[in-house]
């Protein structure tokens, strides 16, 4: 016995019998579509050219995970910049909450890569080969050679975007050398590029709007971030209902020369369903705020075009808040926004202050490989220590290592205590710290390591040395 079919569609992408409902939204020209298209193409061009832009001789954006070095807008960040990274991530999180509380899902409809590439790259290609939705061509799309050509263009676009994506992590020079060479010489990078290409083809060729409906958690978070004063796309029920085709009646009196007027009992919505057929996630905005709405404003452009044709005021569907629709009063400033702004301002101040107070170099002291300590025959204890220096300047610098804080401590290194670190690079030197055994208390003695340059820069770090634990009778 088969289960009963649901009376209503559970998801816009599912038919009542559980099969996939393919959404091919109708394009609705208007001012919002024009603005979104211009902004989307700006973002696509920016994404494509940013890896090639140089600031202070460095890539404008390079996330070199292998070498643990990030270049962002001419500034280099190293693993020692964990405080800056933490402040940046928290600031981004608070910014998302603030923008969502103020403007709703404006990110999803205007700047999210899923929306930008789906609606302004892959769907236009699809319309070119399949025909526009609503045309004589079947909704199933192109067949035969046209279908093969469509997916070939999809593949070319995906492989270009995946190569560009890879350049943000390896740099354009490295990527160019890889493209010229055999994939066998760099199998891992090739597999990353192939995986990204395959995921993009799956996403934009098959999964599509389901990313927003099923995979992306942002829509589910909005219930906690939105309030009745948040700007969202809303349908004005007071003005639109009751919906339906407009009934007309003759003006009072028998004079047929008088104009025919609309029946005042009917609302402005004529139930044309243009707002539904143009929605990229397939929802009906007239049902109120929904998780699937990405705030793209296509329904606004579609409805405004209809209102213009029937001679009614624009804005039956518009950007507004729930409070403004119900009471006619909008409230922009509220306590929670002030709190978000204050928190974001404090985080930004800490980030800028930490960034500006960074020195010319960053010093890290680590324990060396091998035994924790060695007892030498003359009553001295030796520890192997690795001193790492991140040179933040663009020019190379010479650093000299010194130790202090322990009487009788000395340094030794087969490579010398002075070494050069290129601009924007990280260098290290392994040194032996030799300390008298009497300096250790409970197996530990704390020393201060420092590096200096000829230009007067100095950085110091305290670090514990290890030694033998002496009994009380041995002290």
What does this structure look like?
This protein is of the alpha+beta class. Among the domains are: 31-80 and 112-208, no CATH class; 361-474, Immunoglobulin-like (Sandwich), CATH 2.60.40. It is 39% helix and 19% strand. It is built from 14 helices and 18 strands. Strands 10, 11, 12, 14 and 16 form a 5-stranded antiparallel β-sheet that branches. A hairpin with a 4-residue loop joins strand 11 (374-375) and strand 12 (380-391). Helix 2 (82-103) packs antiparallel against helix 14 (335-356) and helix 5 (144-170) packs across helix 6. The protein is elongated, with a radius of gyration of 33 Å. The N and C termini lie far apart (88 Å). 22% of the residues are buried.
Quick description:
The protein is of the alpha+beta class and 475 residues long. It is built from 14 helices and 18 strands.
List keywords for this structure.
single chain, about 475 residues, alpha+beta, Immunoglobulin-like, 5-stranded antiparallel β-sheet, 4-stranded antiparallel β-sheet, 14 helices, about 20% strand
Layout of helices and strands:
Layout: H1 31-49, E1 54-55, E2 58-59, E3 61-64, E4 69-72, E5 75-77, H2 82-103, H3 106-110, H4 113-130, H5 144-170, H6 172-180, H7 187-207, H8 210-215, H9 218-225, E6 232-235, H10 237-240, E7 248-249, E8 261-262, H11 274-277, H12 298-309, E9 317-320, H13 322-327, H14 335-356, E10 361-367, E11 374-375, E12 380-391, E13 397-404, E14 410-412, E15 418-421, E16 426-436, E17 444-452, E18 458-466
Antiparallel strand pairs: 1-2, 3-4, 4-5, 6-9, 7-8, 10-12, 11-12, 12-16, 13-15, 13-17, 14-16, 17-18
Helix pairs in contact: 2-14, 4-5, 5-6, 5-7
